[in-house]
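## retry 2 of 3
previous attempt timed out at serialization; input unchanged, resubmitting
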Amino acid sequence: MTVRDEREPLDPRTTSLYDYALFRIGIEPEGRVPRRGHPLPEGPPPAPDRPHPTWERARAEVSAALAPLLADPDPVRAAEAVHRRAGELGMPLRTVRAHTARLDLPDEDAARATARHLTRTGSTAAAVGIGIALLIRLGEPEDVPVLKALGTLCGLSSVATAALDPLDRQAAALLVIRGRDRSELLTPLVDAIATGDAEAVRAALVAVPDDPRALLCARRIAEAADLDGLLRAHPGDPALLALAARLVHRMSRDLGRRAEILDYLPATNVYAYVLGQADRLPPGPELHELLLSIALDLHSGPAALLDWRPHRREALLGGLERLLAGPAWALRSGAPPGGEDPARAAERRRADWIRRTGRKPFAGTPATGPHPRWEVAVVHDAADSNSVETRILVDGLPLVPALFGKGPGLSPEYLVDGGGLRAGPEPREVQLAEAQCTEGCCGALYVTIRRDGDAVVWDGWRGAVGPQPPPYRFDAAAYDAELERAERDHSWCWPARRTARLISAGLRERPDLLGRWDLAPVWIHTDHREPHITVLRFVFSAPDGAEDPHGNPLRLYFDWHLPDDGSPPEDRAASALERIAESDPKGFARLQRGSSGLAAALGYAWGGSGQEA
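## retry succeeded, writing output
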């Protein structure tokens, strides 16, 4: 980093934050930057002394305060005025920056000149942050060194990253990695990138551990290390290809936000390198699982939404299908039986998943045109074992990541088995997806489904991200046939999950089984961490309708765990339903949570099976 030209700070009593950042970088041993950035000389910004305004009110206040100043053709005078006003707004700095980046700027050249004066001479985080926020839209390559330096200061990293993204992806990526790498697993890679030695970067990149903590920012790792360039420079490198495969698969996961693969500019090139040279990878169950997961991503996941050249995606899938069908990639017969050894159990589950999933992404290109298709995807990796989602394809492309991107489609038990997607004579609103956190936090995606003559119509969208989606019209006969096909398709199910589905179906057909015990089903699925266990959760409500002091009904929740004992799911489901018919589940299921008073009154023990003696 070069020393800038000497300029007077806006406040002569202080040093500009840019000069301060250069100083801290210069004195830091080995050029390392703390994860949270260098502390600001002024200390943390003071908390606002007023209630947070609404989004609309904050936008109006920021616009009224700053827009007239940014139209001033004299950048020095404008910057001094912004510097004064920045401290008077009385709202969180991130709120001011968010609205500054969206300001209507009639004279962009004048605003750019003011932004540069603020970033180079501003002495407070509030004023400098406004300058950086303006450069998100107005920045040019000459601003990169200043943004890189300011991004090392506490509280300025995120806004500097946003300004750097369109100008220097590697610099932006390094800022993100520094802030997120709490485990310091990526420190060797960051140090190698700082040397500028491509061979050192390659060696550090392939050494990145297959650890969710390291791969949390997969896209930024690829951008910081120039993965696209390394693949071109090292064709056929098995270690690099395997690492690239892990990164693109991780980028395709929808972990409560827009899938990173959609913002990774060289994504289609990297997929082509990885899958076009996958025959260089050593065959084995772990890589088989990874490549098959990538095939699912391309077939029905967010990666299908990339800007593919015509037929390119289909060609890559076809090549991968031929490779995995070859003898070198065939699963060894006699997968290890289940047991107490976690490694053997994981290997068995991996083999079972490969057998169940093997044909799904290669069963033909999803139909194009106004035809719906429902596909059940079982995501299987170390970070999220056996997460199940319903993928809705329209015009051959996945609908949920295109319209929502905050969480996957809901489970097939709800959308398919439960008749959630059925179209009746009356319009009905259906939830298709929910944010990974919760609906109350970040929303959910809803659509209204109605039958209109010989068509099924999806419209009345609610919760979509971006412009309001258009109505979708499907041929009713084709729609019903596809839904019936999905209802019959149990190929994705493993035994414990099939047991859960059969028990759910039995309880829907015979609601009196639980009703006679004053119970209702809450959740019948498989345990997330131990997918070989079927879990039934029931709720019991106080018979007299009693409520707690807050007006909530008094309830008790019971869990019944059914491990996979190797018997057919049909037999286990029938046995479970028979036991429910003959005896009260409250006597053998475990009390997990609910009203302490109600439990004590009825003699139930927490975490125990049945009533206390």
